[in-house]
């Protein structure tokens, strides 16, 4: 385990998450229990991921595909310094997209005998 980072939410609750260790540059100093206090709120740390999700939804809902449903799954890592970022998976970034279409109304289905 790399360590814990404590984020505060907008309403003051504390969210402790297992975080990745920053490999280069300066390092944060943790308390005696190994926990680091984040410099951003939990919501602030997730702002970039929310913006990425909104952009992805726009891409898949606009245009010719017109799916009935869109599911987007991000692998997210949290860091005390950089906030949240999309985690590297087997590809360069972890992103799963599922598009669904429902069958057309009853007129498209053949009658059942």
In percent terms, what proportion of residues is strand? 25-35%
Q: How many DSSP-defined strands?
A: 7
* Individual helix count: 1
The largest beta-sheet arranges its strands as: 2-1-3
Task: State the order of secondary-structure elements, H for helix, E for strand.
Answer: EEEHEEEE
- Approximately how much helix is present in the residues? 10-25%
Radius of gyration: 20 Å
Structural class comes to alpha+beta
Which residue ranges are poorly predicted, with pLDDT under 50 across at least 5 consecutive positions?
25-31
First-last Cα distance: 61 Å
Mean pLDDT: 74
Anisotropy-based shape: elongated
Biggest beta sheet summary: 3 strands, mixed
């Amino acid at each position: 385990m790399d360590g814990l980072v404590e984020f505060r939410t907008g309403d003051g609750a504390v969210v402790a998450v297992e975080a990745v260790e920053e490999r280069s540059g300066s390092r944060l100093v943790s308390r005696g229990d190994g926990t680091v206090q984040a410099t951003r709120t939990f919501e602030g740390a997730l702002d970039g991921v929310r913006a990425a999700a909104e952009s992805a939804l726009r891409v898949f809902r606009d245009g010719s595909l017109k799916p009935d449903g869109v599911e987007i799954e991000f692998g997210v890592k949290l860091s005390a310094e950089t906030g949240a970022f999309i985690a590297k998976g087997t590809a360069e970034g972890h992103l799963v997209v599922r598009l669904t279409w429902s069958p057309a109304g009853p007129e498209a289905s053949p009658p059942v005998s």
